[in-house]
Amino acid sequence: MNELAELKVVDGDFEVEFEILPSTDEAENSYPGKQTIVDGLYEVNAALSSNRRKIDELNKEIDRLTNHADGLDYMVAVGSGILAGVVDSLWVGEFKFERGKAWSNKSVNDYVMKVAKSKGYKGDDLNGAIKHLENKFGAPSDSVTAQFGGGLQHHLRDFAHHPTPVGLIFSMLTQFTGKAYGTNTQGVFQIVNVENKALIGKDIPQKFLFGTVFWFFHMVSDAAGSHAFAGAGTGLPGPLLSLLKEVSALPFFNSSRNKDGVKDFSLWISKLFNGTLLAEHDENGKIIKESAELMKFDLRAELGVAYELGRQAVPVILNECIVRGFYFIRRLVAEIKEKDIKKISELKRINWGKTLPFKNRTIIRMLTIATGTFTLVDLADAAIRGAVKSAGNPGLFAKEFILRVNFVGVGRFAIAVGTDIAMGIKRSKLRNERMGILSEQLHLMNAKVFYLQGDMWIAAETAEKTINEAAEMMQKTALLFIQALQENSRSLDNIGRDTPLIEEHNPGLIEDITDELKWG
Predict the structure, then answer these.
(1) What are 440-447's contacts with CB under 8 Å, separation 24+?
(2) 7-16, 126-135, 199-208: which has the minimum mean pLDDT?
(3) Is the pTM of this model over 0.85?
């Protein structure tokens, strides 16, 4: 039997027995506080499930930010850095501005000639090509060259002559306002009226044509200098110098001026543009003209610097490719062995996320070591060669050392170190976050236990109260039942004593009742 309780009442020869059985009805199993506990358990379970998902995501991210490189990875990284350093020493050599400038001059001149011929020029002379483009694609602000410092500086000071998006904006602004924008000889921003209105569009389509298409081809014509000094004169400022000149016009630089009232920063940019800043000087401090012509920092000079930096980038890229290639191949082989892949069709089972050499701490650490090794070899080579060439002259040693340093490699090493450190910091934060969630999980599990215990004790208390109430009710019912039987017994006894009187007053009644009870 699975009864919850049993009750037996005995009165003389009379016996009454009750049993309390468990109910299978859900409604009968409810009790005060049940819904509160159910709601609480639902919220706790939902929070636990949400936290488990967060922990899984954090584990994946922490694993990505964890360095899993081993000794072989480090050996390959060091070897790659040494190999790249040897390539830099034997092939790249020192930074030669003259070589870069010669390359950029030829490239720009060839490009100007190519564009001029595409626009109808029939000759083979660069001067003629520049003049052809100047005549066909003029600029409105050329009519106010004097207000921007003359032919030597107006390409720098007139913002519409900057071959940048900012230059294009000012070119369009000139079309719609009829004014030229730039700086005066003191470096102060100025706006002047355009004198030649022939190249100001008469309607909106023409303004866009002159402000964009004509502007572009005019920039091409000025890139190699004017037709009077084709290929040699100061051309256009490059993007870097254009940006510096535009920034120099801001009020922030107004406070710093020389004795002539010229902004110091603006003057420095002008000297850099015309070649007097970087030019070599003789023993009397005078500029050597040939050197000044060579050191003009215009668009061609910036392209020359980019060319030399491109040469320096070769061993850096080689280093990068070796390290990333090794990482990919080694992890791919490990995946193939782990998944026991025998056929090409089974390659789809590979977890490519584990093989790609990007965005994980392991490859970043390998690159940090590789680029660090490369930089160390490069600096050692620069120091040795500088010491040999300088023959003990500190000034000459510093110059030779700087010219031999691979700045692209130094920059790549700095980026690798910065990325490695940033990943380490992020990993630490995520681990702390995971610890917080795990602590919260512990509290939630405790809360779940308390809810379950509360459910048990409330159910037990409610069951005890119900059983007690049922037992009391059964006891009262049994007593009432016994009392009723006793009353019936006394009534029967009274009927027996009163039979003669009934027969006397109602002759034949008892016989009739007896017959009725007998038959039916």
Answers:
(1) 440/47, 440/51, 441/48, 441/51, 441/52, 441/55, 444/44, 444/47, 444/48, 444/51, 445/48, 447/40, 447/44
(2) 7-16
(3) no
